[in-house]
Amino acid sequence: MAQNLMKSPHSTNPLSLRRLRQSQTIRDLAREVRVSHDQLLQPLFAVDGISAREPVPGLMGVFRETPESLLRQIESDLEMGVQKFLLFGVPATKVRQDFNFDFTAHQIRAIKQRFGKDLFLAVDICLCSFTSHGQCGILNSEGDHVENGKTIEELTRAASMYAEAGADCVAPSDMMDGRVGAIRSTLDQNQFDRTLIMSYSAKFNSKFYGPFRVAANSAPQGASLLKDRATYQIDPARPTDAWASSIRDAEEGADILMVKPGLPYLDILVRLSQEIRKPWAVYEVSGEFAAIDVLAEKGLILGPEAHLEAWTAFIRAGASMIITYGARNAKKWLQGVL
Ligand code: PBG
Predict the structure, then answer these.
(1) Cβ-count burial of 283 within 10 angstroms (0-12 exposed, 13-18 middle, 19+ buried)?
(2) 94 is catalytic
């Protein structure tokens, strides 16, 4: 085809690709992918023990919310056309085991009582905001290893409490082996067979989670093996692990799979979304999101346009949904009110 075009005797400029770029109208018609605000999920942080909401450093327009401000924020988000959320509960006290999930469950109940089916509520399942050491699970007695089995017991307990409180979807982000299967069977046994599971199946051990860890008060505090999350999150140089854990999570019953972070891992998203035919979410994580705004603040790029460009890349790469801190601005930005 390309050969023929090049050889056409009738065309003086057979290679012109610019005809399709000459106006907004033709560019709109020729677009292969589109981003819509209804593909986006907005993260929310509900924080116990603070008296007023606090801005999250680096994430413009995102707050650590009190129970009251949380409901006000959701109300204004709904008015702005945001209807899908990913909730993170941050407890006031941190422990090493016997975690108390009541605060998060209360927030879910309050949100659902107030807004009901108007909104889709996914809830993150992880222990890093609950543990005194900031690891995503329970440590062994030597304190040098996150125990898989014991951690899963806590994760499944959280998942059933959140499902019972009204979560539409639970989203395990801990990266323990076998947690999706355990959560699915516990939910099914407790009549929560309609609660979705969105698995952070291809979650990498990334340096781009910085602002989130401030918001969720969840940075790892340990030394040596416990200074980061390398013993459970995927090594950035191991794409095969992302594939293996996504296949496994799909087989264990995950309804939605995820790549996280987004832009530095687009290759993973392209490959996995083609090979594993499930709805794919991508998490535009705090650091990659904030990086755009830092450049925009310096006057070096146009922030909203750059955010839309990143979202277009995600959809082009195969995502059907995007978790982004900019969801609440999307309608405005997409309508060209930049
Ligand atoms: C919990 C978790 C993390 C994020 C969501 N859930 C990261 C982490 O600290 O490992 C990151 C989200 C972001 O950076 O926006 N384990």
Answers:
(1) buried
(2) no
Return the minimum-mean-pLDDT range out of 4-18, 146-160, 263-277: 4-18
Which of 60, 212, 258 for a ligand 1 pocket mutation test, highest count of atoms within 8 Å of Cβ?
A: 212
pTM for this prediction: 0.95
Could you report the per-residue pLDDT of 34-62, keeping only the tens digit for each?
999 999 999 999 999 999 999 999 999 99
End-to-end CA distance of the chain: 40
For ligand 1, the distance from its centroid to the CA atom of residue 112, given in whole angstroms, is: 24
Specify the pLDDT at position 1. 47
How far is 159 from 156, CA to CA, in rounded Å? 5
Alpha carbon distance 117, 19 (integer Å): 46
Residue ranges in the chain assigned as alpha helix (H): 2-7, 24-30, 67-79, 102-115, 148-165, 179-189, 210-215, 239-251, 266-275, 286-297, 303-316, 330-334
Structure tokens at 114: 């107030």
pLDDT in tens, 148-157: 999 999 999 9
| Per-domain boundaries in the chain | 34-337
Residue 261: is the preceding peptide bond cis (ω within 30°)?
yes
Instruction: Establish whether 298 is a catalytic residue.
Output: no
Does domain 34-337 match CATH 3.20.20.70?
Answer: yes
